[in-house]
Amino acid sequence: MTTDAPSPGLDGGPAALRWFAALRRHVGRLTLVLTMICLLFPIYWLVQSSLSTQLELFHTPVYFFPPHPTFAGIRSAWDIIGPDLWHSVIISGGTVILTLFLAITAGYGLLLARARRTATLVRLLVLFGLVFPTITFVIPLDKLLYTLNLLNTYQGLILADSLYAVPLGVLIIYTYVLSIPHELIEAARVDGASSVRVLWSVVIPVARPAVATTAIFAFLAAWGDFLFAETFANSPSVLPASIGIYNLIGTSTSVVSWPEVMAGSLILGLPALLGVAFAQRYIRAGISTGAVKG
What we know:
Number of helices: 12
Order of helices and strands: HHHHHHHHHHHH
Number of domains: 2
Number of strands: 0
């Protein structure tokens, strides 16, 4: 009785596959760690620069942590840009409110208009308006705001910052509301609800992830705006904090205090970072649902 000898290729195959799978996992984890380091290191450097003195910041060799941490730079930056932060809050809040109102009503209106068959066309039209760089709208907006007497006003900056936020919000909300079962809206109508009641009681609660995603994108666009604020406003009573940080560099007649600049950037970036951290669950749900079901 004879038996066939096992083929060496069959024994080595599963082991090689397991080795390759393990190598791929390790490479993936290493890539993830390196990516996280590249993303987090600028934030770390911003924090340590804010806690350093001017001499420590330019010390050779470089200090990766200040030997004598101080909050002097943060206090000085707060004294300079503190009032401008309130201006940023007003502009960003107004942009979010205007964007949500227009995006929700437009998205719901498209849904009522039975634009489901033209969903692709609507997306293309919205994206067509988003592909143009912001700088191309500066001169037309300047003429428009001058005609409306809205230069150097909160209203002018809110309208300008809504330029990109509204089309993006319409795209996100309209794509999301397409996934709402039509029977849910019809059931509310059978109960006697008007279109406004259906919007307020059915569509908005169901579309909360899309609304939150639109709100955070509008907030980020207005909170970090520099181009429109620098172009359409020169009155200290309406300038946002982004211009205040720039003035720490551009209008200084002496040596630039980089710890103050870094501290100002840290103060300006913290609200945006916290907003994204708290709303990331809604952002992920709003984008993924709209992409899959839209």
